[in-house]
Structure formats: structure tokens, C-alpha cells
Design goal:
The chain is α+β, with helices and mostly antiparallel strands. 47% of the residues lie in helices and 19% in strands. It folds into 2 domains: 62 residues, Arc Repressor Mutant, subunit A (Orthogonal Bundle); 175 residues, Beta-Lactamase. May be an activator protein for the gylABX operon.
Length: 273
């Protein structure tokens, strides 16, 4: 690291930690097993450095290897769980989701915004609607989801510009909004009406509606949704039959968050993008 980089990042910066995290992040759904060369290429590390980091992670139990291929172990979930378990949001939201799903007989979830994606932090599944399973920690692109629209609609200024500069707005179905102008118009509508509906933009057959969850200052820190199969509902029936209960649940979660200890409620705002 040269002097300029030290000045830019600060004297506190620990480059070895940054590199170790980069090695962990090299693994993903499309690259669950990697060779030493794969990791070196993905991270920009030398083979020797990549090998040291991988073997250290093996020693710590975060990575396993058969001698050629490396893959993450379930222990890496502890890193994310440490964050989630420090929040009051998931534990506060879960009983409300259970009551909501029992009332309307549809799956419900709470998510937060992280970068370009939403990340599920609480969920009650009544039935499996999507072709992929959804669990706590599941990520989806914000532009194609009802909760993403709610969370993006609250972004302002540089945060919103930054999102659109970085987002690819991939077309996931024929209905996905992929033009910035169209998505911005939809976000303005969501902001005005106080909820978002996404009709088969993430996956064909999936219809969902979401509402914001706000902190004490009125800032949107999470979103709660209900998802249903398009064959069972219409957009009109979702708004008429599901939206009132969804909005009531959002307000109930907000009330409980507001009464949570300040140190824990404060954590719910961290890292939401």
C-alpha cells in the first residue's frame, strides 16, 4: 500500500482484513466452489496470498477444501447472524408477521435495503409461490420487488442518484421496469400513496404488495409485504382485501420499534442503504 492509499483510507485501515473479507465475498450462488486460481483472479490477490487467506479460513472453520476446490461452510452464517441478532427489528416483526399471515392466509416478509438489493430479515411462509425458496438472508434486486420499491422511494438526493448510477435494472420478466424514467415515476407514485404493488416483475405468477416501516424520526428503515399467486388474486383484490391488514401491521411494528430500548432500536437503522 502506497502513501497515498494510506492517506485516503486512514491510518486505521487494516488491509489484511479487507483482503480476507474479499476472499469470503468471492464465493456466491454462481461460484460456490472455487479453485485457488479462481479466488486469486476474483480478488486480485497473488496465488500465494490467496492460499494463505483460504487456509486460514479453513483453520477457522469458515471454508472447507478437498485439496483442489474451496467452498464456504455454514459457519459464515454466524457473521450475518451476529448482525441480525443485534437488531430489534426481526424479533419485533416476527409475531406481527405470524398474525398477519394467519389472518389473510398469505406469506409475509420484512426486508431492509442493502446496496442494490433487498435482504429478508423476517418471514412467515404460508405456501411456496416462487420457484426459489426464500429465507432470512435471501436477496433480490430492489428494482423488481414491492419491498424494494418502498425502500427506494424513501431515498433522497445523492443516495437515489447513487442507486441509479449503480443499478443494472435487469429484465427478470416481461413486466420488469428496466428504464430509469419508468422506475422513477413508479417510485414517486409509491412515495405519494404509501405502498407499492409489484405485479409479476420479479417472477411470473408472483404478485406482492408492500408498506414502509418507519423509525421514530419518520425514516423508512424496512418494508413489510404480502405475496400471493396471480392466479388467485387481481391487483384490485390485493388492494381491497390485503392492503388494509398490511398497513395495520406496518403501524404495529413501528409502534413496537418505537417502544424498544433506544440502543437496540437505533441498530435497526444501520446498514439499510
Amino acid at each position: 500500500m502506497d502513501e497515498g492509499e494510506v492517506t485516503e483510507r486512514g491510518a486505521h485501515h487494516v488491509q489484511s482484513l479487507e483482503r480476507g473479507l474479499a476472499v469470503i465475498k468471492a464465493f456466491n450462488a454462481d461460484a460456490s466452489e472455487l479453485t485457488l486460481s479462481d479466488v486469486a483472479r476474483s480478488t486480485g490477490l497473488t496465488r500465494a496470498a490467496a492460499r494463505r487467506f483460504l487456509l486460514t479460513l479453513v483453520d477457522l472453520g469458515y471454508v472447507r477444501t478437498d485439496g483442489k476446490y474451496f467452498s464456504l461452510t455454514a459457519r459464515v452464517l454466524e457473521l450475518g447472524y451476529s448482525y441480525l441478532s443485534s437488531l430489534s427489528l426481526p424479533e419485533v416483526a416476527q409475531p406481527h408477521l405470524e398474525r398477519l399471515s394467519a389472518e389473510v392466509h398469505e406469506s409475509s416478509s420484512v426486508s431492509v435495503l442493502e446496496g442494490l438489493d433487498i435482504v429478508y430479515v423476517a418471514r412467515v411462509a404460508v405456501s411456496r409461490i416462487m420457484t426459489v425458496s426464500i429465507n432470512v438472508g435471501t436477496r433480490f434486486p430492489a428494482h423488481a420487488t414491492s419491498m424494494g420499491h418502498v425502500l427506494l422511494a424513501d431515498l433522497e438526493g445523492e443516495d437515489l442518484h447513487g442507486y441509479f448510477d449503480a443499478a443494472k435494472l435487469e429484465k427478470l420478466t416481461a413486466r420488469t421496469l428496466t428504464r430509469q424514467k419508468e422506475l422513477k415515476a413508479e417510485l414517486e407514485k409509491v412515495y405519494r400513496q404509501g405502498y407499492a404493488m409489484v405485479d409479476q416483475e420479479l417472477e411470473e405468477g408472483l404478485r406482492s404488495i408492500a408498506a414502509p416501516i418507519r423509525d421514530r424520526r419518520g425514516k423508512v428503515v424496512a418494508a413489510v409485504n404480502l405475496s400471493t399467486h396471480a392466479s388467485r388474486t387481481t391487483p384490485e383484490s390485493v388492494e381491497h382485501e390485503l392492503l388494509p391488514s398490511l398497513l395495520e401491521t406496518a403501524r404495529a411494528i413501528e409502534a413496537d420499534l418505537a417502544s424498544a430500548p433506544p440502543t437496540k432500536a437505533g441498530h435497526t437503522k444501520a446498514g439499510h442503504g
